[in-house]
Each structure stands twice: as C-alpha cells, then as structure tokens.
Amino acid sequence: MNHQHPSRRDEIAAGLAAVERRVAAACAAAGRARQEVTLVAVTKTYPASDVRILADLGVAHVGENRDQEAAPKAAECAGLGLTWHFVGQMQTNKARSVVSYADVIHSVDRSRLVEALSREAVRAGRRVTCLVQVALDDDPGRGGVAPADLAGVADTVATAEGLVLGGVMAVAPLGGDPARAFARLAELAARLRADHPAATVISAGMSGDLDHAIAHGSTLVRVGTALLGRRKPFVR
C-alpha cells in the first residue's frame, strides 16, 4: 500500500468498478467479449499519485493529451509497466518528446506529423503504434483527417519506419448523435482493414458515450471523468 490518502484510493476504486460495470454491460449488449475492449484511463490534469493508484488497481493503459504535462508524469511513473497513450492534438515540434514515452499515439492526422514521428521513433530506436484520427464533423479545431483522406494518411503511416499502423480514432461530434458517428467510424475502419488487415484498433468512446462506441465496435475507450471524478485541474 502506497502512502496515498486512503479515501482517494477508495474514490478511484469505486469509479473504476462503475466504469468496468458499464463496459461489461455494453459488451454484453453488443454480443462482444469483454476482453475485446481495452480501457484507457485518461489522467490529464490528475497527479502522478492517481496514476500510481490506477496501476495498483490493475489499470495498464494510461492516456494523456498535453506533452508538457505527460512527459514529466510518464517519467515519474516509469517502472509501473504502463502502456502510455497520447490522445491529444499534437504539434510536430513535440514529436521527439512524445515518442520518448508514448507507446500509442491516437491523434495522427497529417503526413507532416507522420514524417516527424517516424524520424524520432527511428532516432530513439522505438516502434510506436499510430492511430489515424478521423474527423466526423466539420470542426477543424478538434483535429482529424477528412474521411476521404484516411487511406492516404494510413498508407503513409504503414510505410513509415519506426511506426506501426494500429487503426483509427475519433471523437463524437459535439451535440451530434454519437451512435451515428461511431457507426460511420466502424465503416471507415472496416474499409481500412481491407487494405491493412492488422489495423484492428478503433479508439472511440469517452465517459459520456462509451456505450454507443462499444455497440459500434470500439476496441479502446478513453475514460477520464467517470473514472477519476471532476477535480480542479492542477497546472504545472
């Protein structure tokens, strides 16, 4: 037992149990095996002590979305055997830092970023799994390739040294119908698998819509709030 305040551990354990019940129920409803879906705990704005508690409770996948917060946290939690997912918008100039700790990058959406990630992965002697983020709405601020450009960016990833094409990622449009958005993503993912059979990952679904995402084939759900509660963000 770490020297954490026991009540925080209890809070996180309760959140994890509740999310686990939701994921299990959504899998059952979709006729899918529970092990088809991986839970990624999104720990942005939460301290490294929370990451340690999650690891202690058996969570193996952790997601972050800002490099300046993620890099020191990953360093502090090195040795916990976690798989780190970078889930936020990414600037090309952050490629070297992100590649140093991220095992999976969910937000790859342009060839220039692929080139930067490839260069840094080779330099660091790492193999990084990349998911191509697809925009399911017309909001450029949220990132992602237009569905028509998915194949092109995916091919670039697939042929880039040091990178592995894992599959696709998307965020449900704000105010839109998440079920429709995730059904569209499932179609795009199936089309991608026709060309790249190993690209089986579909990263979709967050605290508010994970049930819809699992119904439409999501293999990775990214959950923060439902797991860790609403806290005042700490700013580094």
UniProtKB/TrEMBL annotation:
Gene3D superfamilies with a match to the protein in the record = Alanine racemase
Q: Which cofactor(s) are needed, names only?
A: pyridoxal 5'-phosphate
Does the record bear Repeat in its keywords? no
Q: Domain Alanine racemase N-terminal spans what residues?
A: 18-230
Q: Mind listing the GO molecular function terms for this protein?
A: pyridoxal phosphate binding
Q: According to the UniProt entry, which residues carry N6-(pyridoxal phosphate)lysine?
A: 44
The alphabetized UniProt keywords are: Pyridoxal phosphate
The reply to whether rRNA-binding figures as a keyword in the UniProt entry is no
Offer one Pfam family short name for this entry: Ala_racemase_N
- Family affiliation: Belongs to the pyridoxal phosphate-binding protein YggS/PROSC family.
Which PANTHER family does the entry mention?
A: PROLINE SYNTHETASE CO-TRANSCRIBED BACTERIAL HOMOLOG PROTEIN, PYRIDOXAL PHOSPHATE HOMEOSTASIS PROTEIN
Task: Briefly state the protein's biological role.
Answer: Pyridoxal 5'-phosphate (PLP)-binding protein, which is involved in PLP homeostasis.
- Tell me which HAMAP family the record gives: PLP_homeostasis
Q: What is this protein called?
A: Pyridoxal phosphate homeostasis protein
Organism field = Sphaerisporangium melleum
The taxonomic lineage of its organism, from the top, reads:
Bacteria, Bacillati, Actinomycetota, Actinomycetes, Streptosporangiales
